[in-house]
Write a structure and sequence with these properties.
By secondary structure, the protein is of the alpha+beta class. The chain has 3 domains: about 280 residues, Up-down Bundle (Substrate Binding Domain Of Dnak, Chain:A, Domain 2); about 160 residues, no CATH class; about 60 residues, SH3 type barrels, CATH 2.30.30.40. Helices cover about 55% and strands about 5% of the residues. It is built from 10 helices and 9 strands. The strands form 3 sheets. Strands 8-7-6-5-9 form a 5-stranded antiparallel sheet, with no helix packed on it. The chain has a two-stranded antiparallel sheet with strand order 1-2. Strands 3-4 form a two-stranded antiparallel ribbon. Strand 7 and strand 8 form a beta hairpin. Helix 3 packs antiparallel against helix 4, helix 3 runs parallel beside helix 5 and helix 8 runs antiparallel to helix 9. The two termini are about 90 Å apart. It is found in: Cell membrane; Cytoplasm, Cell cortex; Cytoplasm, Cytoskeleton; Lysosome. Pfam families: FCH, HR1_TOCA, SH3_1. One of its GO terms (cellular component) is cell cortex. This is Thyroid hormone receptor interactor 10a.
Length: about 600
């Protein structure tokens, strides 16, 4: 298409004078009216401009092919600069994405809870968990922004930069070819111009010599020798002029041939190559434009999932459950205080609400057998002294600084942790024992004595954990009050690592039960009959038979209806009562419970 700059025919001569035309002056040779001596016509003469062909050639002589080559060179250079500008734009866009992703990650990290804070009670609330989910989704969203920046850099910036360097080198080669062709044509034109000027000069000398010979021939005073000499001089000048004319004609023919090759072959071929180069550049740039959008489209589904995760986090918030979690975490287990009695000093009766049992239910510490006479800070007189020490009680190992209900939960959690750790040590002890047996049977596999230190350390750990287990079982029995310790079913381990599961009342089938625990249980049983019956909180219907063989449990038959005295506290046992007054614990999964509203 770009070869239209140089293509020409007879109907387009006038148009082509504004495109590629050699900067040369055309001279035409013609014969005089007598058919004798040839005369030289300059294109600027009045007669030449009357010839349409001479007019078109005159127009061609007033333009330069370098003009159009400069236009194409400028156009292709502008296209390459556009590619460079686009690459720079995408690079800055990737920097924006990377900075955005970095800020999002820092923001998520700033508001995310530290590892030590994840055990806080508030973290169990659904609103807190949803906020953590939002922070995680924000972090994932930042990762997708980083992926966008990375893909843009790889697929657009690096690829286009490499392609741009190839185009620059290719363009440079084509422009060098055009420059060489132009220089060759200009060199031929200079030779043509020199031969033309020499021909013009010699032809004028021949004309003057001919005029002098004619004048001498007509001069009566001139001798015959002068006439012959003048004619010889004229003939010689004419011969030299004829040779110059032939040389000029040859140079003109050579130049016209090279000019035709230049305009109809060389330059169109070079311009077609430049056109193909430019079109490839435009096509590659268009692909870069599309990639700019597709790169972000490819991650939009994942970004959409991140946003859906944030929406789901909002819908997962349950204010009712959060309220129940707060209640469960913070309920104290204390009984509500009774009414304060009227003290009638006029009758001389000095009674205080603290030592009166009329109309006032027993406090929580009154239900703890031998500990009933101990003062408890919330209901004791000392509680009236509101000091900072009372606000932040000292944390103790037995969790006695906590309210009864919270203390029981913490003790149960501690027991579970100890049981898991103890089980781990027992398993390790068994593994070491098996390994020792293998070493003893196959000495080549190892030295049994090398395991002695590990076996000894494991045994010490087991003894230490058993001691802690008994200690926390005792504290749990004290904190649980009447019947509370019977609901907990910790696992104990014998010397062989076997599990012995306690019955719901806390009694083990193994004889390793601590004496202190038995004493506490006995004291609780002694106080059991002294207390008045607790009002039922609902009913339950037995779905299966339960023998109730263990101490503290009660037998039941399928379909039997029992009164619920105490709900399941999370240990799998429910306290019930028969119509005859018998009370005990049954598995919660064996009955269908209906509580009073």
């Amino acid at each position: 298409m770009w070869r239209a700059f140089v293509e020409s025919d007879m109907q387009q001569q006038t148009l082509m004078c504004s495109l590629y035309c050699p900067a040369f002056t055309v001279f035409s040779l013609t014969s005089d009216s007598t058919g004798g001596t040839s005369q030289l016509f300059h294109p600027r003469s009045q007669d030449v401009f009357q010839n349409p062909m001479c007019l078109s050639l005159t127009c061609v002589s007033r333009a330069s092919p370098q003009d159009q080559c400069d236009i194409i060179e400028k156009h292709t250079q502008s296209g390459l600069e556009l590619v460079e500008k686009y690459v720079k734009f995408v690079k800055e866009r990737t920097e924006v994405e990377q900075n955005y992703a970095k800020q999002l990650r820092n923001l998520s990290k700033k508001y995310n809870l530290k590892r030590s804070s994840k055990d806080e009670p508030e973290c169990r609330l659904s609103s807190y968990q949803s906020f953590l989910d939002i922070l995680n989704e924000t972090n994932d969203y930042a990762g997708q922004r980083e992926l966008i920046a990375e893909n843009m850099m790889m697929n657009i910036c690096i690829d286009l930069t490499k392609y741009l360097q190839e185009l620059k080198q290719e363009r440079k080669t084509y422009l060098m070819e055009a420059k060489k062709a132009q220089q060759s044509l200009e060199s031929t034109f200079k030779q043509l111009d020199n031969s033309k000027k020499r021909f013009e000069r010699e032809w004028r000398e021949a004309e003057r010599a001919a005029q002098y010979a004619e004048k001498t021939d007509q001069d009566i005073n001139a001798t015959k020798a002068d006439v012959e000499k003048a004619k010889q001089q004229a003939h010689m000048r004419a011969h030299v002029a004829e040779e110059c004319k032939n040389d000029y004609a040859a140079q003109l023919q050579k130049y016209n041939k090279e000019q035709s090759q230049f305009y109809f072959n060389d330059m169109p071929l070079i311009f077609n190559k430049l056109q193909d180069l430019d079109e490839r550049r435009v096509r590659k740039l268009a692909q870069g434009y599309i990639l700019f959008s597709d790169t972000e489209k490819h991650v939009m589904p994942i970004i959409g999932k991140c946003l859906e995760g944030i929406t789901k986090a909002g819908t997962n918030v349950n204010e009712k459950n959060d309220s129940m979690v707060v209640i469960e975490q913070n309920k104290s287990g204390f009984e509500r205080p009774g009414d304060v009695e009227f003290e009638d000093y006029s009758q001389g009766i000095n009674r205080t609400s603290s030592d009166s049992s009329l109309g006032t239910p027993k406090g929580p510490m009154d239900l703890l057998g031998k500990n009933r006479n101990k003062n408890f800070w919330l209901f004791s007189k000392k509680s009236k002294r509101f000091t900072p020490d009372r606000i932040t009680p000292t944390v103790t190992e037995d969790f006695s600084h906590l309210p009864p209900e919270q203390r029981r939960k913490r003790l149960q959690q501690k027991l579970e942790e100890i049981c898991k750790e103890l089980q781990k040590e027992v398993d390790q002890s068994e593994a070491l024992g098996k390994m020792k047996d293998v070493y003893e049977k196959n000495p080549q596999m190892g030295d049994p004595a090398s395991l002695a230190s590990q076996i000894s350390q494991t045994s010490q750990n087991i003894e230490r954990l058993r001691g802690e287990l008994n200690k926390y079982e005792t504290w749990l029995a004290e904190a649980g009050g009447r019947g509370e310790t019977m609901r907990y079913k910790p696992q104990t381990f014998n010397n062989n690592g076997a599990h012995d599961v306690q019955s719901p009342d806390g009694a083990q089938s193994d004889e390793s039960t601590p004496d202190s625990s038995q004493a506490i249980y006995a004291e609780f049983d002694d106080d059991f009959e002294d207390d008045e019956l607790t009002a039922p909180i609902g009913k339950c219907t037995a779905m299966y038979n339960f023998p109730g063989a263990s101490e503290g449990t009660i037998a039941m038959q399928e379909g039997e209806v029992l009164a619920v005295i105490e709900e399941d506290k999370g240990d799998g046992w429910t306290r019930v009562r028969r119509n005859n007054g018998d009370e005990g614990y049954i598995p919660s999964s064996y009955v269908s419970i209906s509580l009073n509203k």
